[in-house]
Amino acid sequence: MKKQKKKEKKPSSKPCRFCMDKIQIDYKNDTLLRRFVTDRGKITPRRITGTCARHQRQLAHAIKRARSVALLPFVKVYYR
Amino acid sequence: MRAYECVYILDPALEEIAVKEKTDRTREIITSRGGAVHKVDAWGKRRLACPISKRTEGMYTLLKFSGDNAILAELNRVFRFDDAVLRHLIVVDDNPLPPATAPAAADS
């Protein structure tokens, strides 16, 4: 039983959204970046979002830039 | 010459005239040092993702320009000593405006 359960767990390969749609990653586009950040403000790992390595790098860079100009929060939701 | 992009956040309490004055001053800093301003885009008042010096809103302005690094030093210095500027960020422009449209934007 246990073995069968393990077999069912296949790594589902999601396509990288930026490769598919050819979206330019920009630190000013905070609505887009917000999708790749948890509600605590952390960057979502690429095993969850399915972003490819190259775009994840660009994404992380953009998120960090966006944080420094207060377009994205650093740690958590400050208001609400 | 290199294309740069600058985002700065002004105090939301500033009046429109003061904001205009600031953009004129930055424009002057760039042009007097042999640079060119390609685009000034005022995003207006926006809510900050995190409070900066007890302010929850800010006036965002995007500036696209090209020039030498002497401009950057001066801009950084001016922004840092200006109390009305909450934050600023100057980065190399990843996708600069095509040269055909750049002069037209600078004229207007």
Q: Can you tell me about this structure?
A:
The complex is a heterodimer of chains A (80) and B (108). Chain A is mainly alpha-helical. Chain A is 45% helix and 0% strand. Chain A has 5 helices and no strands. Chain A has helices spanning 2-8, 17-21, 30-33, 46-49, 53-68. The model of chain A has no long low-confidence stretch (mean pLDDT 83). Chain B is an alpha+beta fold. Chain B is 33% helix and 44% strand. Chain B is built from 3 helices and 4 strands. Chain B has helices at residues 16-32, 69-81, 102-107, and strands at 2-10, 36-52, 55-67, 85-92. In chain B, strands 2-3-1-4 form a 4-stranded antiparallel sheet. At the A-B interface, α5 of A face β2, β3 and β4 of B.
Can you lay out the helices and strands and say which pair or pack?
The complex is a heterodimer of chains A (80) and B (108).
Chain A: H1 2-8, H2 17-21, H3 30-33, H4 46-49, H5 53-68
Chain B: E1 2-10, H1 16-32, E2 36-52, E3 55-67, H2 69-81, E4 85-92, H3 102-107
Antiparallel strand pairs in B: 1-3, 1-4, 2-3
What's the CATH superfamily of chain B, by name?
A: Ribosomal protein S6/Translation elongation factor EF1B
Q: Assign an overall shape of chain A.
A: globular
The strand count of chain A comes to: 0
CATH topology name of chain A, in short, is: 30s Ribosomal Protein S18
- Mean of residue pLDDT of chain B? 85
Which class of chain A in CATH terms?
Few Secondary Structures
Distance between the termini of chain B: 22 Å
Most extensive interface between two protein chains, with residue counts: A-B, 16 and 19 residues
The oligomeric status of these chains comes to heterodimer
